[in-house]
Amino acid sequence: MNQKTFFYFLALGLSLLLASCGPSKEQLAQEQAQLREAKLQEAIAFMDKDEPQAAAEVLKELLSKYPQDPAILEPLAMIEMQLGRTDAAADHFEQLSQIDPDEMHFLLYAAQMHRQGNRPQAALHLYSDYLEEFPEDAATWSATAKIHHELNQHAQALQAYLNAHKANPQGSSPAECVAIGTLFEIQGNAPQAHDWLIKAWNQTLDPVAKAQAAVWLGTLAVETKDPTSAALYWD
């Protein structure tokens, strides 16, 4: 056997040996992708059968292998929300917003989960992050204002309500007008309080807000020694 023939058979033998050692990286990647897809389909099947806990277990197992995969994180977050596990749902939604900065709406979902889970400060933190990117979002300013109001953080609540109104001047509901009016009253700004309460009182779509505005307007009238107006509002 000449040298050329020897090296030919040597190379052939080595290639056969390598081929027999196991699958290639490409084959392994393909197999892993197929297993991932099969597990996702298994989770979907559990969801279709209204078995969210079983679906969550499958997705958690997948997430341990693919911790940055939105296709796993998003349905898992939705299931955790369905199961009332607001803390876990919030974590997954926040992670989704970090993976893809173009998906900032997931921050709002996370904040809502914190609100439902009675974690107002965590919700405020996420709303603040969102508003840095979208300062013209009136609905988010309004949500922020309501949390501050519930926490008796009156100055912050008033500013957030006013920011919401600035972003959408026609969007302030009668209830929000009442809230703004009462917050101005707490600050001792009776003229501004009166103006906002009148806006609520003049609207008839929300009888509850109208009644609340009437109570405050009557109180303001008494404070300004105007019994005629007080009687009008309290009638």
Give a description of the structure.
This protein is mostly helical and 235 residues long. 79% of the residues lie in helices and 0% in strands. The protein is built from 13 helices and no strands. The protein has helices at 3-20, 25-48, 52-65, 70-82, 86-99, 105-116, 120-133, 138-150, 154-167, 174-186, 190-201, 207-223, 227-234. Helix 2 (25-48) packs antiparallel against helix 3 and helix 3 (52-65) runs antiparallel to helix 4 (70-82). The longest helix is centred in the first third of the chain and has 24 residues, at 25-48.
The number of strands is 0
**Could you say which structural class the secondary elements and strand pairing correspond to?**
mainly alpha
Helix content: over 70%
Q: Mind describing the biggest β-sheet?
A: none
- How many domains? The number is 2
How are the elements arranged and paired?
Blueprint: H1 3-20, H2 25-48, H3 52-65, H4 70-82, H5 86-99, H6 105-116, H7 120-133, H8 138-150, H9 154-167, H10 174-186, H11 190-201, H12 207-223, H13 227-234
Helix pairs in contact: 2-3, 3-4, 4-5, 5-6, 6-7, 7-8, 8-9, 9-10, 10-11, 10-12, 11-12, 12-13
Structure summary:
The protein has 235 residues and is an all-alpha fold. It is 79% helix and 0% strand.
Structural descriptors:
single chain; 235 residues; mainly alpha; Serine Threonine Protein Phosphatase 5, Tetratricopeptide repeat; 2 domains; 13 helices; 79% helix; elongated
